[in-house]
Amino acid sequence: MTDFITHDTVKTHYWHKLEDGRIQCDLCPRFCKLHNDQRGLCFVRQNLENQIVMTSYGRSSGFAIDPIEKKPLNHFLPGTPVFSFGTAGCNLACNFCQNWDISKSREMDTLMSKASPDEIAQAAKDYGCSSVAYTYNDPVVFHEYAIDTAQACRSLGLKSVAVSAGYVCAQPRAEFYQWMDAANIDLKAFTEHFYYKIVGGHLEPVLDTLKYIKHETSVWLELTTLLIPDENDSEAELEAMTQWVVENLGPDVPMHFTAFHPDWKMRDKPSTPISSLLQARQIALKNGVHYAYVGNVHDKSADSTYCHGCGQLLIGRDWYELSEWNLDASGSCLFCGQRCAGVFKPKPGNWGAKRKGVVMS
Predict the structure, then answer these.
(1) Residues of the chain with CATH 3.20.20.70
(2) Torsion over CA: 91, 96, 99, 101 (sign)
(3) What is the C-alpha to C-alpha distance for residues 186 and 256, in angstroms, rounded to an integer?
(4) What are phi and psi of 210, to 5 degrees?
(5) Among 154, 129, 89, which residue's Cα sits nearest to residue 355?
(6) Measured on CA atoms in the order 208, 105, 196, 237, is the torsion positive or negative?
């Protein structure tokens, strides 16, 4: 049970005291070592009176209803609406952050939307959503808030979706993912150099998270890589990445290759050409990935799902709008009977591309 200090500050469990008097946060592999009153890099976890607390519990950067495909999740309840929210802060320092106004926020008073876990779950149900997504910034940093919300959702029959970079330690990871039903993990690159120099982290903990989710949980998993020109889009790196995915996670984990646009501290790079995304997709398919997609660009063919048994079109997608649907009630191909990997309802949802802002009272 969450242990409150104030209405938006709660005690946490993953920390220990150091001999020099500082407190080490053990939530993520940054292992921030904090003096009294000092905040970690994520900014929302603080050493307060010789314990690590979360300072943004119940406070959100906003609530909205999105298509599930926007997370992106193409094989988890397609066509359904997902109730989405995040807080402030992030435990990585990506120079190219596409949500920097949220994840890099140091102004806690900008978190004007407030809602308890029970209120979020009830609102999601009232709006007809099938799931709730912990997104916009990384749910690793609002661990306690996300878990409490996921528990409230489960009691109402709603699914929970984590959109994360996967940079988390083993013990909190296990606690977190026992309450999740699906995850899209941002595999930002496949070199330690990129993670260290551009992200401010390390690659290996992310790979450990991917293997944990796939092999130790029942969580549906998809991957996203934002391709940045001349940084993580080389043919050699994509070959290595996609081969690793097939060998370590299996061929049924969908991969999304999405387009970068200049932002935050990386405005000197051009936007990703669609040719780079299509090349990445082809490399993935060649190396045995069954489902590979492009994102942030318009290409219906490369956004659609095809049967890896017979090659027929299974799910047509035009941006976030579903068109063709050639799966039976069990999620198998109508043409050859091959099972399409994923979590499907007998019929697709019809939410489409709508985005609806939600104001919580």
Answers:
(1) 59-297
(2) positive
(3) 9
(4) -60, -45
(5) 129
(6) positive
Q: What is the pLDDT of residues 207-217, one digit of tens each?
A: 999 999 999 99
At 32, the pLDDT band (50, 70, 90 cuts) reads: very high
Question: 305-354: per-residue pLDDT in tens?
Answer: 999 999 999 999 999 999 999 999 999 999 999 999 999 999 999 999 99
pTM over 0.85: yes
CA distances from 163 to 132, 150, 264 (A): 11, 13, 20
CATH of 59-297, one of 3.20.20.70, 3.40.630.30, 3.30.420.40, 3.10.180.10: 3.20.20.70
Question: How many other C-beta atoms are found inside a 10 Å radius of the C-beta of residue 64?
Answer: 18
Tell which residue, 233, 227, 344, has the closest CA to residue 296.
Answer: 227
Output 323-326 pairs: Cβ under 8 A, ≥24 positions apart. none
Q: Residue 309 has which token pair? A: 């048994």
Q: Would you state the pLDDT for residue 146?
A: 98
